[in-house]
User: Fold this.
Amino acid sequence: MNERKRHVIKKAHQLFIDKGFQATSIQDILDYAQISKGTFYNYFSSKNELLISIFKTISEEIEKELNELLIGQDPRDLEIFIKQIELQTEKNHVNKISALFGEVFVSDDEELKQYISKIHLRMLRWIFRRFVDIFGE
Assistant:
């Protein structure tokens, strides 16, 4: 991902935290990120796609850091799992994921709701795999 796209994602994420996803317009994003409409639509087809990109970016960052905690460690070590959960909780708090999820759930947007459901399912699968690592089948 190029730096300009990262910049747009970062600025939009901040706006969504400050104003809320529903209350933020594409024009607000253009103004805050200091980009043109063409630049926005070069990267994203819609505000929904931008929100999904924000979730993907955060998820990839968290997943990378969770995996880094396991490097050179015994995956059965309960303390490592606790550190992973703490890391994820902190990242979710810092990125205001609960607030963004909440806005999606009260919206009528089925595409976003399905995406959020996929994120939750992915997380549950990760927890299940980690439980198997720690406690066995």
